[in-house]
Amino acid sequence: MNIIIRRAETKDIKRMAQLAALCIEDSIPPTREVSLKNLKQARIIDIETSLAKIINLSHIGIYLAEDEKGNLLGHLMGYVGDIESVTGEPQGWIFDLSVDPKYRRRGIARRLVEKFTEFVKKAGYKFIGLLVTSSNKAAVALYENLGFVEERKRMAKRLF
Ligand SMILES: CC(C)(COP(=O)(O)OP(=O)(O)OC[C@H]1O[C@@H](n2cnc3c(N)ncnc32)[C@H](O)[C@@H]1OP(=O)(O)O)[C@@H](O)C(=O)NCCC(=O)NCCS
């Protein structure tokens, strides 16, 4: 299969929101009880409304992978310029990376991260940061494989 990586456009937003919702399950920590249906609906609305406002801005780097027929296989949503909270250093950030379950383990996420890395480097930033759910073994393995290292742990305690 020929995989094409390109910048996402406004016409792609609805499909990307659907894919992000499909993939959100893997990022729910086992500590949380959520309605998957509600979460998916909220995710779709959130992505559709936020991307419509930002997709063409210069600090936004949103890329998608598609096959030769234009079917969406995966996407990466990122941006540059926000600071890392402790050091104050501005950097690139990945806020969503989703690959259609039917097309996983074919190097699509790797290629999307590489494409975004070019964007971040070109913009002059030295680091890319992201949040990944500790129980999401595939995502943790992917990032470690690509050279990301753990810098901090985000922790939560259940109160009742
Ligand atoms: C995580 C995810 C994006 C990986 O996408 P992918 O296209 O299948 O990943 P790639 O094929 O590019 O994998 C590259 C490397 O990552 C690692 N990796 C990816 N998936 C893995 C898995 N399920 N188990 C172990 N390692 C894995 C491997 O080292 C792999 O290299 P290899 O196939 O040569 O061994 C995909 O599983 C996904 O969409 N998950 C749901 C959404 C999600 O968790 N997103 C990340 C949120 S931060």
Q: Please state how the strands of the largest beta sheet are arranged side by side.
A: 1-2-3-4-5
Task: Compute the number of helices.
Answer: 4
Secondary-structure element order, as H and E? EHHEEEHEH
Please state the average pLDDT score: 98
- How many extended strands? 5
Corresponding CATH architecture = 3-Layer(aba) Sandwich
Described by the principal axes of the CA atoms, the overall outline is: globular
CATH superfamily: Gcn5-related N-acetyltransferase (GNAT)
Q: What oligomeric state is this?
A: single chain
What profile does the largest beta sheet have?
Answer: 5 strands, mixed
Which compounds are bound in this model?
coenzyme A
What can you tell me about this protein's structure?
With 160 residues, the protein is an alpha+beta fold. The protein has one domain (4-145): Gcn5-related N-acetyltransferase (GNAT) (Aminopeptidase, 3-Layer(aba) Sandwich), CATH 3.40.630.30. It is 34% helix and 22% strand. It is built from four helices and five strands; from the N terminus they run E-H-H-E-E-E-H-E-H. The protein has helices at residues 13-23, 36-54, 108-122, 137-145; strands at 4-7, 60-66, 72-83, 90-99, 128-130. Strands 1-2-3-4-5 form a five-stranded mixed sheet. Helix 1 (13-23) packs antiparallel against helix 2. The longest helix has 19 residues, at 36-54. The protein is globular, with a radius of gyration of 16 Å.
